[in-house]
């Protein structure tokens, strides 16, 4: 496995990994909600990675296995010495190999190198594997919140979100 900076040639594969995961976690009766969330995230972030993640204090990387993009992770400066883990996804055919843990350690190292002192992240109740990963990786649950507003970070509509943090 090799982790490297995102390149424009990675766009279609990164976009597909994002779409596949979000379709995977869409619950019956939530199709319209997730369709609008997905489109918002595509418009504001996924389809403009070089602009969005090219700013100071930001970054976006892909993990390759045998030359194929197998996963991705972003980093976003959220102020006060903290960075947020963003868009950490692993393609279905590469899950359960420890790639998520490796991506998380990688982005923590990048954050340290960039001078951040704290990592933050969030996940939803629809992603129990992610919640378990963050707990095992030493992240502390800071709060739980019912998400009511749709943004590029959350689908909204009453989904429970878990907010974690870890000092670097």
List the helices and strands and how they pair.
Elements: E1 2-5, H1 11-25, H2 31-44, H3 49-53, E2 59-65, E3 68-79, E4 82-90, H4 99-113, E5 118-124, H5 128-136, E6 140-147, E7 159-167
Parallel strand pairs: 4-5
Antiparallel strand pairs: 1-2, 2-3, 3-4, 5-7, 6-7
Report what the structure shows.
This protein is α+β, with helices and mostly antiparallel strands. It contains five helices and seven strands; from the N terminus they run βαααβββαβαββ. The chain has a seven-stranded mixed β-sheet with strand order 1-2-3-4-5-7-6. The longest helix is centred in the first third of the chain and has 15 residues, at 11-25.
Q: Give the overall form.
A: globular
CATH architecture: 3-Layer(aba) Sandwich
Number of beta-strand segments: 7
Estimate what percentage of residues fall within beta strands.
Answer: 25-35%
Strand order of the largest sheet: 1-2-3-4-5-7-6
Q: Tally the helices: what do you get?
A: 5
From the N-terminal CA to the C-terminal CA, the straight-line distance is: 24 Å
CATH class: Alpha Beta
Uncertain spans? none
Query: What's the mean pLDDT score?
Result: 92
The structural class is: alpha+beta
The quaternary organization reads as single chain
Give helix % range.
25-40%
CATH superfamily: Gcn5-related N-acetyltransferase (GNAT)
Biggest sheet statistics: 7 strands, mixed
Radius of gyration: 15 Å
CATH topology: Aminopeptidase
Tally the structural domains. Answer: 1
């Amino acid at each position: 496995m090799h982790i490297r900076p995102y390149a424009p040639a990675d766009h279609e594969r990164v976009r597909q990994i994002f779409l596949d995961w979000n379709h995977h976690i869409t619950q019956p009766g939530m199709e319209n909600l997730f369709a609008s969330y997905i489109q918002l995230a595509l418009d504001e972030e996924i389809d403009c990675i070089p602009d969005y993640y090219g700013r100071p204090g930001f970054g976006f990387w892909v993990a390759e296995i045998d030359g194929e993009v197998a996963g991705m992770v972003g980093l976003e400066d959220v102020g006060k010495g903290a960075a947020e883990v963003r868009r950490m996804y692993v393609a279905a055919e590469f899950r359960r190999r420890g790639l998520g843990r490796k991506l998380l350690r990688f982005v923590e190292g990048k954050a340290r190198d960039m001078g951040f002192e704290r990592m933050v992240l969030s996940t939803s109740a629809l992603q129990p594997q992610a919640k378990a990963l963050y707990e095992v990786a030493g992240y502390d649950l800071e709060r739980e919140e019912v998400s009511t507003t749709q943004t590029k970070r959350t689908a909204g509509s009453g989904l429970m979100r878990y907010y974690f943090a870890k000092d670097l």
